[in-house]
Write a structure and sequence with these properties.
Number of domains of chain B: 1
Structural class of chain A: alpha/beta
Shape of chain A: globular
Structural class of chain B: alpha+beta
Number of helices of chain B: 15
Distance between the termini of chain A: 47 Å
CATH topology of chain B: Cytochrome-c3 Hydrogenase, chain B
Largest sheet of chain A: 5 strands, parallel
Helix content of chain B: 40-55%
CATH superfamily of the largest domain in chain A: NADH:ubiquinone oxidoreductase-like, 20kDa subunit
Strand content of chain B: 15-25%
Oligomer: heterodimer
Strand content of chain A: 5-15%
Largest interface: A-B, 62 and 69 residues
Strand order of the largest sheet of chain A: 2-1-3-4-5
Number of helices of chain A: 12
CATH class of chain B: Mainly Alpha
Number of domains of chain A: 2
Helix content of chain A: 25-40%
CATH topology of the largest domain in chain A: Rossmann fold
Number of strands of chain A: 5
CATH architecture of chain B: Orthogonal Bundle
Radius of gyration of chain A: 20 Å
Chain lengths: 270, 429
């Protein structure tokens, strides 16, 4: 079955929900074509076949949360010619990075009967904090079309066409009504990277930041806008501290708000 | 039988969601240990939910699982709604059911065609299977795609839907919009019938066990979102009494907590349990087809769960058609409520079995406590008992065959290991 002239693809999982690698299996129309163009050498969710490296393209899902995983990603980098991270966990630490703002020891003893059985790091961190990453595909979950674009760009040795502008641009392109202007609904669209197709505003709700911060976002300005619309400091804090809470721009803004809320506390260095 | 002494270990289980390993130890012809080891790292959802607004639970808990996000969203909504004293009825309830049908279809078809069937036909994957069974795999992909389209139609997208909120939805479809689903659902219903016939004709190992089957039971419908918790051994309780009857244990080899029925032991949740407890509530087409393919009203062979899943896919397509045809637009996309202090429970039938939520909030709706019990941690003990019995029964097989057979026995449960590790009970010692 092994096909030597086709590029070898591997899919790896760290702490995550499986949704981003599932997106590959959710490409029902393209899956067999992709399988025809690449040699799926390692993808445990889909196949029992587990070929050794080196791999031409590694897709990495999930964040680093254990000492063992911190070592595993180093080994994966060594056997991967190109390494692409997929999804919010791999690119920003994911929702589980909410632990980074709290004391993880308290977490384990709070929830496990025998904390000693649990081997976990204090923080959930993105892959790029550990190894060189060739391309980061954002989203919680990633957009299937963007995933196919990234794989295809890799196969053709070109740069993936993935826009870094805001959700607002997508919203305008779809001729959707601005939920902030029309309905006074708080929305993170202006500071969030496009990719979802401005989904939430299309469903009459505000964006909640699945694709993380766009290039040079003005987070303080949007926070101020939310305040003027009546959102509490706590609500604004939680909005930044969500799916991509540990991404730099959102983290910095949430820490700024936290200082306003608790000016006497020592700032916790991330 | 010879005095076989061997350790069988599969470090990375394939075609399951998440990271697990198989460990089987045989000594002097006896099976000493049979374990499903879960090494997927914990993510501490229950801990970081504390302090969040209860209205965020559908969006946050969806992230527990990319394959069954709706199960978490529904459980979270029901628990939250119990706290504030609302109960979405009529079209809102029907739309939730329709969304859940989409998830059952997408998740079950993924398992039937891509994760489970390759075992029976001796392929490493569905992609390899497609070389000789292209039509079958294409039918599976299209069936799955329609499930995903249903989820996107109601929820905005198939993974982590965005249109779900406490009280209902952000936006609901018009009658005209929903009817556009009809043609695809009709095709899907026929393809689901083909699927049942196809899976029923596979070769199954002769393996039956006497399980305690735990599932929801609703007086009028095959259970998805609501019902009482029942079993074939006399359990019949309100979901809010879950904690009195079930408990979770923390064992060394697992980052998941294993659940047991107090005073009874291991139990099974999922398709076989639902089917056994609710056969009479399936549609006539499902019942007739089940009889035609020789399945009967109960199934105690976990390898045949692939057939039961296929019956449930057919049910989901028929139920989706019923909802689409009867749909009228609700007065509002969601019900209003005021946050208040309280404790609420939610329990729904995820594709893999019951998924239980309990939340406690303060006056402002801030979460003080959260507990979520996913189906896979409930099935873990049952999986291990299956492995033990199966290994005893299959001791004559060469290592490679025995290993594959044991892997298959784990896949019978469609385990979702990503789900299983994220559930951390608040423990008071």
């Amino acid at each position: 079955m092994s096909d030597t002239h086709k590029p070898k693809l591997a899919v790896w999982k760290f702490a995550s929900c499986d949704g981003c690698q599932l997106s590959l299996l959710d490409c029902e129309d393209e899956l067999l074509a992709v399988a025809g163009a690449v040699d799926i050498a390692y993808f445990p969710e889909a196949t029992r076949r587990m070929d050794g490296g080196p791999y031409d393209l590694s897709l990495v899902e999930g964040s680093i949360t254990t000492p063992h995983d911190a070592e595993r990603i180093q080994a994966i980098r060594k056997v991967s010619k190109t390494l692409v991270t997929i999804g919010a966990c791999a690119t920003s630490g994911g929702i589980q990075a909410l632990r980074n703002f709290r004391d993880v020891k308290a977490f384990t003893s709070l929830v496990y009967a025998h904390p000693a059985y649990i081997d976990t790091l204090a923080q959930s961190t993105p892959i790029a904090e550990h190894v060189k990453v060739d391309f980061e595909l954002r989203g919680c979950p990633i957009n299937k079309a963007q995933l196919v674009e990234v794989i295809s760009a890799f196969l053709n040795q070109r740069k993936p066409l993935v826009p870094h502008h805001s959700v607002c641009v997508e919203c305008k392109l779809k001729e959707q009504v601005c939920v902030m202007v029309a309905h006074q609904t708080p929305c993170l669209g202006p500071v969030t990277q496009a990719g979802c197709g401005a989904l939430c505003p299309g469903f009459a709700r505000g964006c909640y930041g699945c694709f993380g911060p766009k290039e040079s976002p003005n987070t303080s300005s949007i926070a101020q806008q939310w305040r003027e619309m009546g959102a509490s400091e706590q609500q604004i804090l939680q909005a930044f501290r969500g799916i991509n809470g540990y991404s730099e721009a959102f983290r910095v803004e949430s820490e700024r708000i936290e200082k306003r809320l608790h000016p006497s506390d020592d700032p916790k260095t991330p | 039988m010879d005095k076989r002494t061997e350790v069988i270990q599969v470090d990375v289980l394939a075609r399951v969601e998440g990271e697990g390993a198989l460990y089987l130890k045989m000594d002097g012809g006896e099976v000493k240990e049979a374990q499903l080891r879960i090494f997927e790292p914990p993510r501490f959802f229950e801990a970081f939910l504390r302090g969040r607004d209860f209205r965020e639970t559908p969006d946050i808990t969806a992230r527990i699982c990319g394959i069954c996000p709706v199960a978490y969203q529904m459980g979270a909504c029901h628990a939250a709604e119990q706290i504030v004293g609302i109960h979405p009825e009529g079209p809102l309830r029907e739309l939730r059911r329709l969304l859940y049908c989409g998830e059952w279809i997408e998740s079950h078809v993924l398992h039937i065609y891509m994760l489970h069937a390759p075992d029976f036909l001796g392929y490493e994957s569905a992609i390899a299977m497609a070389e000789h069974h292209a039509e079958v795999v294409e039918r599976g992909l299209r069936l799955k795609k329609i499930g995903n389209e249903l989820m996107s139609f109601i929820g905005g997208r198939e993974v982590h839907p965005i249109n779900i909120k406490v009280g209902g939805f952000y936006k609901v479809p018009t009658v005209k919009e929903i009817r556009t689903l009809r043609e695809r659902l009709l095709w899907g219903r026929d393809a689901a019938i083909e699927t049942v016939r196809w899976t029923a004709a596979l070769d199954f190992p002769d393996f039956n066990r006497d399980y305690e089957f735990v599932s929801l039971r609703h007086p009028d419908e095959y259970p998805l979102n609501e019902g009482r918790l029942v079993s074939n051994r006399g359990l019949d309780i309100d979901i809010s009494d879950f904690g009195d009857h079930f408990e979770e244990e923390h064992v060394e080899r697992s980052n998941a907590l294993q659940a047991i029925h107090k005073g009874h032991g291991p139990y099974m949740v999922g398709p076989l349990a639902r089917y056994h407890n609710n056969f009479d509530l399936l549609t006539p087409t499902c019942q007739e087809l089940a009889r035609e393919v020789g399945l009967g009203e109960s199934c105690t062979n976990p390898f045949q769960s692939i057939v039961v899943r296929s019956i449930e896919v057919l049910y989901a397509y028929e139920e989706a058609l019923r909802i689409v045809d009867a749909y009228t637009e609700p007065d509002a996309p969601s019900l209003d409520f005021t946050p208040r202090a309280g404790t609420g429970h939610g329990c729904t039938e995820a594709p893999r079995g019951i998924c239980y939520h309990r939340y406690t909030t303060d006056d402002n709706g801030i979460l003080l406590d959260a507990q979520i019990v996913p189906p896979t941690s409930q099935n873990q003990k049952s999986v291990e008992e299956d492995l033990l019995h199966l290994a005893r029964q299959s001791m004559h097989l060469p290592t490679e065959d025995l290993t594959w057979r044991c892997e298959q026995a784990i896949r019978n449960y469609d385990p979702c290991i990503s789900c299983a590790t994220h559930f951390l009970k608040i423990f008071v010692e």
